[in-house]
Protein backbone atom coordinates (compact mmCIF):
# COMPACT_ATOMS: atom_id res chain seq x y z
CA UNK A 1 0.00 0.00 0.00
CA UNK A 2 1.30 3.47 -0.90
CA UNK A 3 1.95 5.40 2.30
CA UNK A 4 1.09 8.55 0.35
CA UNK A 5 -2.52 7.38 0.35
CA UNK A 6 -2.69 6.19 3.93
CA UNK A 7 -2.44 7.14 7.54
CA UNK A 8 0.22 5.02 9.28
CA UNK A 9 -0.16 4.40 12.99
CA UNK A 10 2.39 2.56 15.13
CA UNK A 11 4.53 -0.05 13.39
CA UNK A 12 2.19 -2.23 11.39
CA UNK A 13 -1.23 -0.60 11.27
CA UNK A 14 -2.22 1.40 8.21
CA UNK A 15 -5.58 3.16 8.07
CA UNK A 16 -6.55 4.96 4.90
CA UNK A 17 -8.03 8.38 5.52
CA UNK A 18 -10.48 9.64 2.95
CA UNK A 19 -9.70 13.22 4.05
CA UNK A 20 -6.31 12.98 2.37
CA UNK A 21 -8.00 13.21 -1.02
CA UNK A 22 -10.07 16.17 0.19
CA UNK A 23 -6.93 17.84 1.58
CA UNK A 24 -5.05 17.42 -1.71
CA UNK A 25 -7.97 18.97 -3.58
CA UNK A 26 -7.95 21.98 -1.24
CA UNK A 27 -4.17 22.36 -1.52
CA UNK A 28 -4.47 22.44 -5.30
CA UNK A 29 -7.06 25.19 -5.24
CA UNK A 30 -6.24 27.58 -2.39
CA UNK A 31 -3.05 29.42 -1.35
CA UNK A 32 -3.77 28.73 2.34
CA UNK A 33 -5.50 25.65 3.72
CA UNK A 34 -6.45 25.24 7.37
CA UNK A 35 -6.81 21.61 8.51
CA UNK A 36 -8.76 21.82 11.75
CA UNK A 37 -9.85 19.33 14.39
CA UNK A 38 -9.32 18.47 18.02
CA UNK A 39 -5.93 17.54 19.40
CA UNK A 40 -4.65 14.01 18.79
CA UNK A 41 -7.07 13.44 15.93
CA UNK A 42 -4.29 12.89 13.39
CA UNK A 43 -3.81 16.28 11.69
CA UNK A 44 -0.01 16.26 11.93
CA UNK A 45 0.28 12.65 10.79
CA UNK A 46 -1.95 13.33 7.80
CA UNK A 47 -0.13 16.53 6.85
CA UNK A 48 3.30 14.90 7.06
CA UNK A 49 2.28 11.85 5.04
CA UNK A 50 1.20 13.78 1.95
CA UNK A 51 2.50 12.28 -1.30
CA UNK A 52 5.97 13.38 -2.30
CA UNK A 53 5.84 16.15 -4.88
CA UNK A 54 6.01 19.73 -3.77
CA UNK A 55 8.74 20.13 -1.08
CA UNK A 56 7.43 20.94 2.40
CA UNK A 57 8.76 22.52 5.56
CA UNK A 58 7.21 21.79 8.98
CA UNK A 59 7.10 24.01 12.08
CA UNK A 60 5.52 23.04 15.41
CA UNK A 61 4.40 26.24 17.13
CA UNK A 62 4.38 24.51 20.51
CA UNK A 63 8.13 23.80 20.19
CA UNK A 64 10.23 26.73 21.52
CA UNK A 65 13.01 26.13 18.99
CA UNK A 66 10.56 26.42 16.09
CA UNK A 67 8.92 29.50 17.57
CA UNK A 68 12.36 31.11 17.93
CA UNK A 69 12.87 30.81 14.17
CA UNK A 70 9.85 33.07 13.68
CA UNK A 71 11.31 36.03 15.54
CA UNK A 72 11.12 37.79 12.18
CA UNK A 73 8.37 35.68 10.54
CA UNK A 74 8.35 37.47 7.18
CA UNK A 75 12.12 37.12 6.77
CA UNK A 76 12.07 33.45 7.80
CA UNK A 77 9.01 32.31 5.82
CA UNK A 78 10.05 34.12 2.66
CA UNK A 79 12.94 31.63 2.38
CA UNK A 80 10.50 28.86 1.40
CA UNK A 81 9.05 30.19 -1.83
CA UNK A 82 7.92 27.24 -3.95
CA UNK A 83 7.51 25.02 -0.88
CA UNK A 84 4.50 24.09 1.21
CA UNK A 85 5.03 25.43 4.74
CA UNK A 86 3.14 23.48 7.43
CA UNK A 87 2.43 25.48 10.60
CA UNK A 88 1.15 23.27 13.43
CA UNK A 89 -1.03 24.63 16.29
CA UNK A 90 -1.55 27.91 14.45
CA UNK A 91 -4.11 29.14 16.99
CA UNK A 92 -1.21 29.92 19.35
CA UNK A 93 0.11 32.63 17.00
CA UNK A 94 -2.74 34.53 15.30
CA UNK A 95 -0.28 37.40 14.76
CA UNK A 96 1.17 35.34 11.90
CA UNK A 97 -1.97 35.77 9.77
CA UNK A 98 -1.16 39.28 8.46
CA UNK A 99 2.32 38.04 7.49
CA UNK A 100 0.83 35.08 5.63
CA UNK A 101 -1.55 37.39 3.77
CA UNK A 102 1.34 39.59 2.69
CA UNK A 103 3.41 36.63 1.47
CA UNK A 104 0.46 35.07 -0.36
CA UNK A 105 -0.34 38.31 -2.17
CA UNK A 106 3.30 38.83 -3.12
CA UNK A 107 3.60 35.30 -4.54
CA UNK A 108 0.31 35.67 -6.41
CA UNK A 109 1.77 38.70 -8.15
CA UNK A 110 4.76 36.56 -9.05
CA UNK A 111 2.48 33.93 -10.59
CA UNK A 112 2.47 31.25 -7.87
CA UNK A 113 -1.03 29.75 -7.67
CA UNK A 114 -0.74 26.47 -5.76
CA UNK A 115 -1.05 26.21 -2.00
CA UNK A 116 1.77 27.80 -0.03
CA UNK A 117 0.73 27.32 3.59
CA UNK A 118 -0.99 24.44 5.40
CA UNK A 119 -2.20 25.52 8.83
CA UNK A 120 -3.01 22.90 11.45
CA UNK A 121 -5.19 23.99 14.33
CA UNK A 122 -7.21 22.71 17.27
CA UNK A 123 -9.71 25.55 17.16
CA UNK A 124 -12.62 26.30 14.85
CA UNK A 125 -12.69 29.27 12.45
CA UNK A 126 -14.87 31.07 15.01
CA UNK A 127 -12.04 30.84 17.56
CA UNK A 128 -9.61 31.77 14.79
CA UNK A 129 -11.63 34.88 14.02
CA UNK A 130 -8.58 36.84 12.93
CA UNK A 131 -7.77 34.33 10.21
CA UNK A 132 -11.25 34.65 8.73
CA UNK A 133 -10.81 38.42 8.57
CA UNK A 134 -7.13 38.69 7.58
CA UNK A 135 -7.05 35.82 5.08
CA UNK A 136 -10.52 36.26 3.61
CA UNK A 137 -10.56 35.01 0.02
CA UNK A 138 -7.23 33.25 0.48
CA UNK A 139 -7.98 30.45 2.94
CA UNK A 140 -9.95 27.19 2.73
CA UNK A 141 -11.06 25.33 5.87
CA UNK A 142 -11.21 21.54 6.17
CA UNK A 143 -12.20 19.69 9.34
CA UNK A 144 -10.55 16.36 10.16
CA UNK A 145 -12.83 14.24 12.38
CA UNK A 146 -11.68 11.21 14.40
CA UNK A 147 -11.33 7.93 12.52
CA UNK A 148 -14.59 7.08 10.80
CA UNK A 149 -16.23 3.65 10.69
CA UNK A 150 -15.88 3.47 6.90
CA UNK A 151 -12.12 4.08 7.16
CA UNK A 152 -11.56 0.84 9.09
CA UNK A 153 -10.43 -2.29 7.26
CA UNK A 154 -13.22 -4.48 8.69
CA UNK A 155 -15.97 -2.03 9.60
CA UNK A 156 -18.75 -4.56 10.28
CA UNK A 157 -16.56 -6.58 12.64
CA UNK A 158 -15.09 -3.45 14.28
CA UNK A 159 -18.33 -1.48 14.72
CA UNK A 160 -18.83 -2.15 18.43
CA UNK A 161 -15.17 -1.58 19.21
CA UNK A 162 -15.19 1.71 17.28
CA UNK A 163 -18.44 2.80 18.94
CA UNK A 164 -17.13 2.03 22.43
CA UNK A 165 -13.57 3.34 22.09
CA UNK A 166 -14.29 6.21 19.70
CA UNK A 167 -12.18 7.34 16.77
CA UNK A 168 -9.06 8.86 18.30
CA UNK A 169 -6.30 6.66 16.86
CA UNK A 170 -4.50 5.96 20.14
CA UNK A 171 -7.74 5.00 21.89
CA UNK A 172 -9.13 2.90 19.05
CA UNK A 173 -5.85 1.00 18.63
CA UNK A 174 -5.20 0.46 22.35
CA UNK A 175 -4.49 -3.19 23.27
CA UNK A 176 -7.69 -3.41 25.33
CA UNK A 177 -10.73 -1.37 26.39
CA UNK A 178 -9.13 -0.48 29.71
CA UNK A 179 -6.18 1.07 27.88
CA UNK A 180 -8.54 2.97 25.58
CA UNK A 181 -10.40 4.48 28.52
CA UNK A 182 -7.10 5.33 30.21
CA UNK A 183 -6.01 7.22 27.10
CA UNK A 184 -9.33 9.10 27.02
CA UNK A 185 -8.90 9.97 30.70
CA UNK A 186 -5.44 11.43 30.05
CA UNK A 187 -6.75 13.31 27.02
CA UNK A 188 -9.55 14.93 29.04
CA UNK A 189 -7.16 15.76 31.87
CA UNK A 190 -4.87 17.61 29.44
CA UNK A 191 -7.81 19.76 28.33
CA UNK A 192 -9.14 20.68 31.77
CA UNK A 193 -5.70 21.24 33.30
CA UNK A 194 -3.89 22.89 30.40
CA UNK A 195 -5.70 23.83 27.21
CA UNK A 196 -8.90 25.35 28.60
CA UNK A 197 -6.99 27.51 31.10
CA UNK A 198 -4.84 28.72 28.16
CA UNK A 199 -8.06 30.02 26.61
CA UNK A 200 -8.83 32.08 29.70
CA UNK A 201 -11.13 29.65 31.55
CA UNK A 202 -10.76 30.45 35.23
CA UNK A 203 -12.68 27.49 36.69
CA UNK A 204 -10.67 24.85 38.53
CA UNK A 205 -9.77 21.59 36.76
CA UNK A 206 -12.11 19.74 39.14
CA UNK A 207 -14.98 22.06 38.27
CA UNK A 208 -14.29 21.74 34.53
CA UNK A 209 -14.15 17.97 34.77
CA UNK A 210 -17.46 17.93 36.61
CA UNK A 211 -18.94 20.16 33.92
CA UNK A 212 -17.79 17.74 31.20
CA UNK A 213 -19.30 14.81 33.13
CA UNK A 214 -22.60 16.65 33.45
CA UNK A 215 -22.68 17.17 29.68
CA UNK A 216 -21.98 13.47 29.21
CA UNK A 217 -24.98 12.53 31.35
CA UNK A 218 -27.09 14.87 29.20
CA UNK A 219 -25.85 13.36 25.90
CA UNK A 220 -28.39 13.93 23.15
CA UNK A 221 -30.51 16.15 25.37
CA UNK A 222 -31.33 19.81 25.84
CA UNK A 223 -28.97 21.40 28.36
CA UNK A 224 -30.70 23.56 30.95
CA UNK A 225 -28.12 26.32 31.39
CA UNK A 226 -29.52 27.61 34.68
CA UNK A 227 -29.75 24.19 36.34
CA UNK A 228 -26.28 23.22 35.15
CA UNK A 229 -24.88 26.53 36.38
CA UNK A 230 -26.53 26.18 39.79
CA UNK A 231 -25.02 22.72 40.20
CA UNK A 232 -21.57 24.10 39.44
CA UNK A 233 -21.88 27.41 41.27
CA UNK A 234 -21.64 29.51 38.09
CA UNK A 235 -24.18 31.53 36.12
CA UNK A 236 -26.00 30.43 32.96
CA UNK A 237 -23.98 32.86 30.82
CA UNK A 238 -20.74 31.17 31.89
CA UNK A 239 -22.20 27.72 31.14
CA UNK A 240 -23.07 28.96 27.64
CA UNK A 241 -19.51 30.26 27.22
CA UNK A 242 -18.02 26.91 28.27
CA UNK A 243 -20.27 25.04 25.85
CA UNK A 244 -19.23 27.38 23.04
CA UNK A 245 -15.57 26.80 23.89
CA UNK A 246 -15.90 23.01 23.88
CA UNK A 247 -17.74 23.21 20.58
CA UNK A 248 -15.05 25.47 19.13
CA UNK A 249 -12.43 22.93 20.20
CA UNK A 250 -14.27 20.15 18.30
CA UNK A 251 -15.14 18.23 21.47
CA UNK A 252 -18.91 18.63 21.51
CA UNK A 253 -21.55 19.33 18.87
CA UNK A 254 -24.70 21.43 19.13
CA UNK A 255 -27.32 20.00 16.77
CA UNK A 256 -29.74 22.87 16.08
CA UNK A 257 -33.49 22.51 16.24
CA UNK A 258 -35.52 22.45 13.02
CA UNK A 259 -36.93 25.95 13.00
CA UNK A 260 -39.37 26.36 10.12
CA UNK A 261 -42.76 27.63 11.27
CA UNK A 262 -44.92 24.51 11.39
CA UNK A 263 -47.90 25.74 13.40
CA UNK A 264 -46.79 23.55 16.30
CA UNK A 265 -45.07 24.27 19.60
CA UNK A 266 -41.53 23.20 18.75
CA UNK A 267 -38.54 22.81 21.01
CA UNK A 268 -36.12 25.45 19.77
CA UNK A 269 -33.00 24.56 21.75
CA UNK A 270 -30.13 22.53 20.29
CA UNK A 271 -29.26 19.02 21.41
CA UNK A 272 -25.75 18.57 22.78
CA UNK A 273 -23.54 15.59 21.91
CA UNK A 274 -19.99 14.65 22.71
CA UNK A 275 -18.54 14.20 19.24
CA UNK A 276 -16.40 11.20 20.17
CA UNK A 277 -18.11 8.32 21.98
CA UNK A 278 -14.84 7.16 23.54
CA UNK A 279 -14.64 10.43 25.49
CA UNK A 280 -18.36 10.14 26.32
CA UNK A 281 -17.92 6.63 27.72
CA UNK A 282 -14.87 7.66 29.74
CA UNK A 283 -16.82 10.56 31.28
CA UNK A 284 -19.71 8.19 32.01
CA UNK A 285 -17.44 5.72 33.84
CA UNK A 286 -17.72 2.91 31.27
CA UNK A 287 -15.24 0.03 31.46
CA UNK A 288 -16.33 -2.20 28.57
CA UNK A 289 -18.93 -2.62 25.85
CA UNK A 290 -20.87 -4.92 28.18
CA UNK A 291 -21.00 -2.17 30.79
CA UNK A 292 -22.24 0.28 28.15
CA UNK A 293 -25.00 -2.01 26.85
CA UNK A 294 -26.61 -2.09 30.29
CA UNK A 295 -26.20 1.61 31.01
CA UNK A 296 -28.89 4.32 30.61
CA UNK A 297 -26.59 6.35 28.34
CA UNK A 298 -26.47 3.52 25.76
CA UNK A 299 -29.29 4.75 23.50
CA UNK A 300 -28.11 8.35 23.46
CA UNK A 301 -24.54 7.19 22.90
CA UNK A 302 -25.60 5.18 19.86
CA UNK A 303 -27.60 8.14 18.55
CA UNK A 304 -24.60 10.48 18.89
CA UNK A 305 -22.32 7.91 17.28
CA UNK A 306 -24.57 7.51 14.23
CA UNK A 307 -25.02 11.26 13.85
CA UNK A 308 -21.25 11.82 13.98
CA UNK A 309 -20.67 9.19 11.28
CA UNK A 310 -23.39 10.66 9.05
CA UNK A 311 -22.33 14.29 9.41
CA UNK A 312 -18.75 13.40 8.44
CA UNK A 313 -20.14 12.47 5.00
CA UNK A 314 -22.58 15.36 4.68
CA UNK A 315 -22.04 17.26 1.40
CA UNK A 316 -22.00 21.03 1.31
CA UNK A 317 -25.41 22.59 0.99
CA UNK A 318 -27.11 20.01 3.23
CA UNK A 319 -28.23 21.20 6.66
CA UNK A 320 -28.67 18.99 9.72
CA UNK A 321 -31.05 19.54 12.62
CA UNK A 322 -33.32 17.73 15.06
CA UNK A 323 -37.09 17.99 15.36
CA UNK A 324 -39.03 17.88 18.59
CA UNK A 325 -42.43 19.17 19.67
CA UNK A 326 -43.47 19.97 23.22
CA UNK A 327 -46.05 17.19 22.84
CA UNK A 328 -43.21 14.65 22.52
CA UNK A 329 -43.02 13.90 18.79
CA UNK A 330 -39.43 13.92 17.55
CA UNK A 331 -37.05 12.99 14.75
CA UNK A 332 -33.43 12.37 15.71
CA UNK A 333 -31.88 13.83 12.56
CA UNK A 334 -33.36 15.97 9.80
CA UNK A 335 -31.33 16.48 6.62
CA UNK A 336 -32.41 19.13 4.13
CA UNK A 337 -30.65 19.88 0.85
CA UNK A 338 -30.47 23.12 -1.10
CA UNK A 339 -33.44 22.04 -3.21
CA UNK A 340 -35.66 21.75 -0.12
CA UNK A 341 -35.78 17.94 -0.07
CA UNK A 342 -36.09 16.67 3.50
CA UNK A 343 -34.89 13.33 4.85
CA UNK A 344 -36.13 12.31 8.32
CA UNK A 345 -33.91 9.85 10.20
CA UNK A 346 -34.82 7.95 13.36
CA UNK A 347 -31.96 6.13 15.11
CA UNK A 348 -32.85 2.93 16.96
CA UNK A 349 -30.58 0.34 18.55
CA UNK A 350 -32.79 -2.56 17.51
CA UNK A 351 -32.93 -4.97 14.58
CA UNK A 352 -36.73 -4.81 14.41
CA UNK A 353 -37.82 -1.14 14.34
CA UNK A 354 -41.51 -0.35 13.99
CA UNK A 355 -42.87 2.65 12.10
CA UNK A 356 -44.83 4.78 14.56
CA UNK A 357 -47.73 7.16 13.90
CA UNK A 358 -45.69 9.94 15.56
CA UNK A 359 -42.90 9.50 13.01
CA UNK A 360 -45.40 9.60 10.13
CA UNK A 361 -46.93 12.76 11.54
CA UNK A 362 -43.48 14.31 11.99
CA UNK A 363 -42.57 13.51 8.39
CA UNK A 364 -45.75 15.28 7.25
CA UNK A 365 -44.94 18.35 9.33
CA UNK A 366 -41.36 18.40 8.07
CA UNK A 367 -42.43 17.89 4.48
CA UNK A 368 -40.07 14.92 4.32
CA UNK A 369 -40.20 12.88 1.14
CA UNK A 370 -38.02 10.15 2.61
CA UNK A 371 -37.71 8.49 6.01
CA UNK A 372 -35.11 6.12 7.45
CA UNK A 373 -34.92 3.98 10.57
CA UNK A 374 -31.24 3.43 11.25
CA UNK A 375 -30.26 0.08 12.82
CA UNK A 376 -26.93 -1.31 14.15
CA UNK A 377 -27.04 -4.30 11.80
CA UNK A 378 -29.32 -6.59 9.81
CA UNK A 379 -30.66 -6.49 6.29
CA UNK A 380 -32.44 -3.54 4.74
CA UNK A 381 -36.24 -3.75 4.54
CA UNK A 382 -39.13 -1.35 3.78
CA UNK A 383 -41.40 -0.07 6.54
CA UNK A 384 -43.67 1.80 4.12
CA UNK A 385 -43.57 3.22 0.62
CA UNK A 386 -41.13 5.98 1.58
CA UNK A 387 -39.65 4.74 4.89
CA UNK A 388 -36.83 2.19 4.99
CA UNK A 389 -34.99 0.39 7.79
CA UNK A 390 -31.27 0.05 7.03
CA UNK A 391 -28.11 -0.64 9.01
CA UNK A 392 -25.64 2.17 9.67
CA UNK A 393 -22.79 0.88 7.52
CA UNK A 394 -24.97 0.32 4.45
CA UNK A 395 -26.48 3.77 4.91
CA UNK A 396 -23.00 5.35 5.03
CA UNK A 397 -21.96 3.40 1.94
CA UNK A 398 -24.97 4.78 0.07
CA UNK A 399 -24.07 8.31 1.16
CA UNK A 400 -20.47 7.82 0.05
CA UNK A 401 -21.61 6.54 -3.37
CA UNK A 402 -23.65 9.66 -4.13
Keywords:
41% helix; 402 residues; alpha/beta; 18% strand
Describe the protein.
With 402 residues, the chain is of the alpha/beta class. Helix content is 41%, strand content 18%. The chain has 17 helices and 15 strands. It has helices spanning 19-29, 43-48, 64-69, 73-77, 97-109, 129-134, 155-165, 169-172, 177-198, 205-217, 225-232, 236-248, 277-283, 289-293, 298-311, 357-366, 392-401; strands at residues 7-9, 13-15, 32-36, 56-60, 84-88, 117-121, 139-143, 252-255, 271-274, 319-324, 330-336, 342-347, 370-375, 381-382, 387-391. The strands form 4 sheets. Strands 10-11-12-13-15-14 form a 6-stranded mixed sheet, sandwiched between helices. A 5-stranded parallel sheet has the order 4-5-6-3-7. A two-stranded antiparallel sheet has the order 1-2. Helix 7 (155-165) packs across helix 13 and helix 11 (225-232) crosses helix 12. The longest helix is centred in the middle third of the chain and has 22 residues, at 177-198. The chain is globular. The two termini are 26 Å apart. Residues 1-12 have low confidence and may be disordered.
Amino acid sequence: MNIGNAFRIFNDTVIERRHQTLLLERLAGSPVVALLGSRQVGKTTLARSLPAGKPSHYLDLERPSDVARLADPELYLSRFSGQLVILDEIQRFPELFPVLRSLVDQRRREGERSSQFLLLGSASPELLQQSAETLAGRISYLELPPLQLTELSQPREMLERHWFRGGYPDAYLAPHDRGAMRWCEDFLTSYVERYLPQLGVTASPMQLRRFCSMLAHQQGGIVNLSQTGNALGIDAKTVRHYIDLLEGLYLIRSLPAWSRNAGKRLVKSPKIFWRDTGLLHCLSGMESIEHLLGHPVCGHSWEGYCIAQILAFLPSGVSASHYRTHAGAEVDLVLEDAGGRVHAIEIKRTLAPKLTPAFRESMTTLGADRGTYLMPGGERFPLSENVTAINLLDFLSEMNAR
